[in-house]
Specification:
5-stranded antiparallel beta sheet, globular, 4-stranded antiparallel beta sheet, about 300 residues, single chain, about 45% strand, Neuraminidase, 27 strands, mainly beta
Length: about 300
Amino acid sequence: MPGIDAKSDAIYDLVEEGSGVEQLATGFTFTEGPVWHPEEQVLYFSDMPADIRRKVTLDGVVTEVRNPSFKCNGMVLDHDLDLLVCEHVTSSLVRERRDGVREILAYHWQGKYLNSPNDVTVRSDGTIYFSDPWYGRFPGFGIERERELGWQGVFRIPPGGGQDELDLAVAEDEFEMPNGLCFSPDESLMYINDTPHAHIKVFDVNADGTLSNGRMFFEGVGTGVIEEGIPDGMKVDELGNVWVTGPKGVWVISPEGEHLGTVEVPENVGNHSWGGPDWHTLFIPSSTSVYTITTKVGPRREPYMR
């Protein structure tokens, strides 16, 4: 049975010793993009190859939400509980408003289509950041087609902005395949992982939302081989620990860069996100299933959680 692979006793300040994940729902193709809706009390998640978005309750009741879903991947809610969605098929980041209006926030850079927005996060002031690898141009996970940009970046949209205000957050050549991204609890730092290089970099977040002083935070989240488990989805808890997908489950890394342990999961993990009434349930979409584990610690409070 999967449990906690402890590298340090400090992991047990975050999860109960002897605990492990439980399967909440299964029967999917590849699950991703989890986000807990605090009003509806459900978890929204993507099933990319199936081209379906679903939601699941805490007691495991699954409902289809959008079909087709443009093979959506990462999702997050903004301050107004409107849904921000990374779409592989359209190479776009969109906002789905609660009134049903669909707004395209970003789809090209300097006259060329984006690769395929992958994961997205929002700062307290409303600034949006998203990664743009080209996994959505792979067969199955998107639509196979030629890239236009020729590099894979991380982008920033200022508060209230959209396509016209889109800007690069880091240099074009900073990452091979940028993927998961998240803030420290005080939003002074942003962590961004690179899947094939199996490492995490950290940047200072300036007052205007720009990123600077990029440096290595952690190396060796596996080897970058997809079948072994890779750095993909990533979140930070309220104490500043980084939780990132990797071989055998979800790796937990201290703010000082120490691997505290791994929450073991029986399938390869694509992403994870906290939710539940008290924000202490970690939802872990993993290949064909969604798993959960109760944690002693909650998440970095994102704008929609307030």
